[in-house]
């Protein structure tokens, strides 16, 4: 690869926001036909560097060269002219438009009367989907699609732009395994055509699977560039964190007393045809994992428990007492917290500050004294920011200005500050860096150690195996298996059970 020429060169790029340098003389180069990983902790500057290449931000100093020529990129249009396309970490689709309209949004086909040519848009979109091997109805409204299909539509949109350089910012965050496979196949095809790809991800396995080289950023500086064939995952992690070793999460067997009254009991939960007669008990101090394929009904189950979606049947008990939960307010009053899967949309108000977001779920618990003490409020917010290492640690900063991973920390901080008794977590570590992942899992353990309970949905099996006491495997909306952690040998064993392969 390294003998190929540089399609893109970014030299000595610096960028500050509000007087704070977030990129400090960073150089970055991509050769033709390579897949180049861009790695670093939350807030390291990955998205910012790529947004400069895409014309979202303008660099303060430095130079960009595309195909050997100095490039001046100040807008999307400029970037497209240079053949640069990007799939953003935050979705950029318009929910009310169709898939086809979104794909050709900024360069819609006009017929000879200069009207929007719906037919041509649909025809071309179908071609793109075919090329990607995707079975998506291009006339469907984006708002009606699941997360995974929305993600794939984003990718289709970027590819349809005839990009020579494609930037993907954490593209697999909401994809299931088969969808990831499909995406990787597409990426390989694109590189065979000479397209170069920048791949931002916190997932080491993916980086090794498809990338040729890796550039590592730390605190806005370029730390290293390697061929992946020449560096170990441990070395990468050490470069990313700047520390020699990062704690790995190993299972610590603990005994949960299951003769007592369950802290929570669900029986016969029904949600349309998506959740079918699900029953389980949860004991004080227990961490219960929900494993399953994407679309197996895990998210629907916890949403219904939390009162976000209507239950069509079933009963709930807390500490042995029947309870009815019709909406999230009632769930919170009963001591539940839900850290939702789609955090950026469901968990945060982007234009509000970190402080406002953290307080949103907490005002009722803080106002029981009939007055709100400013110092109390500020303490809650400061403690949250500290314990979750929200960076930068500024309570009044608008959430939209934080890096993706730091936005996720704010959602978790917000719900933890309500001091919940039963915590429902839906993929809590998607998009957070390796150090923070371990911190979140430690938090899960700490909650359980206080005698509270956690229901944890995760597609990362090592995570489930690391912290859970029991795991329910959900398949087609039903509890297919209930497994004690000590009866699961390893990740492969659990993977086979999840896939429904007899072991
Ligand atoms: N528009 C903005 N205004 C102010 N600060 C910003 C803005 N965009 C990013 N930042 C800050 O720049 C730094 C780098 O952010 P960036 O989004 O590039 O990180 P990242 O490496 O992509 O992290 P993550 O893995 O969490 O997505 C962060 O401290 C972030 O808060
Ligand atoms: Mg980012």
Structure description:
- The protein starts with 5 loop residues before the first strand and ends with a helix.
- It folds into two domains: 236 residues, P-loop containing nucleotide triphosphate hydrolases (Rossmann fold, 3-Layer(aba) Sandwich), CATH 3.40.50.300; 236 residues, P-loop containing nucleotide triphosphate hydrolases (Rossmann fold, 3-Layer(aba) Sandwich).
- It has 503 residues and is of the alpha/beta class.
- The mean pLDDT is 88.
- It has 18 helices and 20 strands.
- Helix content is 33%, strand content 24%.
- Strands 6-7-8-3-9-10 form a six-stranded mixed beta sheet, sandwiched between helices. A six-stranded mixed beta sheet has the order 16-17-18-13-19-20, sandwiched between helices. Strands 2-1-4-5 form a four-stranded antiparallel beta sheet, with helices on one face.
- It is globular.
- α12 crosses α14.
- The chain binds adenosine-5'-triphosphate (ATP) and magnesium ion.
- GO terms for molecular function: ATP binding; ATP hydrolysis activity.
- It is a peripheral membrane protein.
- Its main location: membrane.
- This is Sugar ABC transporter ATP-binding protein.
- It holds the Pfam family ABC_tran.
